[in-house]
Amino acid sequence: MIAILLSVAPVVLAASILMLGNSLLGIVIQLKLNEAGIAPELIGATMSAFFGGFMLGSLYAKRLVGRVGHVRTFAALAGISAVAVLIYPLVFSPPVWALLRVVQGFCLAGLFTVMESWLNERSTNETRGQVLTFHMSSYYLALCFGQLMVNLWDLAGLEAFIMAGILVTFSLVPIALTSTPAPEIAEVRPMALRALYACSPLAVVGVFLGGMMIGAVHGLAAVFAQNTGLSVFHVSLFTGAVVFGPFLLLWPIGRLSDRVGRRIVLGGSVGLALLGCLAMIGLAHLGASLPALLLLALFLGGTLTSIYPSSTAHAFDQLPRAQYVAAAGGLLLFFSAGATLGPLLASAAMGAFGPTGLFGYEAAVAAVLLGFLGYRALQRPKVPLVQPESFVDVPPTSPAAPQLDPRHQ
Residue 312 and residue 305: Cα distance in Å, rounded? Predict the structure, then answer.
């Protein structure tokens, strides 16, 4: 196992460096727009543009890889993404920044397609869970540290943008120098989205609504925190807690879903997320202490992020292995669509009700999903857990969904 982990270490290192840069850039964009007095609705639209580009990338990146190969694709997309990062400080304009977010979302989809192809190539059914856990542990730690790095520079300067560009560019090095052979990407017959819904309505609705919640909280958590009176340092701690929560909770939640059933664990996660959102609203209005906010942010980050993998695992429990790739691609599209829509609706709620409108929106979406879970429980018997595929801890925004087994990306 150690030999396998060492063989994928360059890929995991590249992913970690890449996410450090993207995480730093994401919080800088939110804070800069908010400090400039940009309306929450426009900030939400700018942040959601990333997921629109991500959707396009998940559709077309595989064609690019098949045409020019893994290493060249990675080099080209990392270069384009780094250029986009360096354009931000040159033109302060929400529409231009939204366009740059589209470009970055497209590039990130292709970059993760390349990297996660390598992970699957080097893992087997017996080792895939450990390989992906290694990958995702590094992924979430990088997201967390990227949020904290914002404290190293004054936001009025260009240093944060420059460092984000350096990190994105430097992610090229481990991939360019790795001796691990690039995998071949086989042609996959697509599965109709309508057929996917007919197979598992709960999975489709779960990933779509889960995307709406994850896209909103990741795109607007910094705006919420800053508008509730937190300093930039405390904002970074808050957003860092949101992305560190999955690092702590996804694995135990996934193991529990393997043992007691997907629907039970999914319902529990959604219910706890709903209560957590209501608690966050109450704490914000009461002016709660920072430790209380951070603890709740950790909890919400873990429970909200678990909705997507629990939903996809529910679908894979009912599918033959031959349909995994096509179904995973379809589920990723539903997730990306939800993640694109989420920041738009959440920012409108913030514009109408203030900063706590973000978690009011989250609670409303969670309530809808909880209601749909109850409806499906009455419509269809519980899926028996006969040798279920394990819940795999992979990030919901990861673009290589068609490749990973069994969750999504």
Answer: 12
C-alpha span between 159 and 162 (Å, rounded): 5
The rounded average pLDDT for each run of 10 residues, N- to C-terminus, in the chain (409 residues) is 73 89 92 90 88 83 76 89 93 93 90 72 60 72 89 89 94 82 57 80 92 91 90 91 85 76 87 95 88 94 86 74 64 84 92 94 96 84 47 41 33
- Helix, strand or coil, per DSSP, at residue 212: helix
Nearest to 406 by CA among 262, 212, 224: 262
Q: Rounded to whole angstroms, how far apart are CA atoms 221 and 362?
A: 12
Please name which of 15, 316, 12, 65 lies closest in space to residue 186, comparing C-alpha atoms: 65
d(CA 101, CA 175): 24
Q: In the 8-state DSSP scheme, what is residue 231?
A: -
- For residue 287, the SS3 value is coil
User: CA of 294: how far to CAs of 229, 273, 363, in Å?
Assistant: 14, 15, 18
Q: Is the pTM of the predicted complex or chain greater than 0.85?
A: no
Query: Are the C-beta atoms of residues 233 and 154 closer than 8 Å to each other?
Result: no
Residue 176 has φ and ψ, to the nearest 5°, of: -65, -30
8-state DSSP, 389: P
- Domains, the chain, ordered by start: 2-180+191-403 (1.20.1250.20)
Number of neighbours of residue 126 by Cβ within 10 angstroms = 8
> Which pLDDT score, from 0 to 100, does residue 90 have?
92
Is there a contact between 215 and 341 (Cβ–Cβ < 8 Å)? yes
Distances (CA, A) of 30 to 17, 42, 280: 21, 11, 20
Task: Read off the tokens for 207.
Answer: 């990933």
| Alpha-carbon distances, residue 338 vs 134, 214, 327 (angstroms) | 27, 9, 17
**Dihedrals φ, ψ of 143, to 5°?**
-60, -45
CA 188 to the chain's CA centroid: 24
Q: Which of 88, 55, 28, 114 is nearest to 330 (CA)?
A: 55
Backbone angles phi, psi at 49, to 5 degrees: -60, -30
Omega cis (within 30) before 406: yes
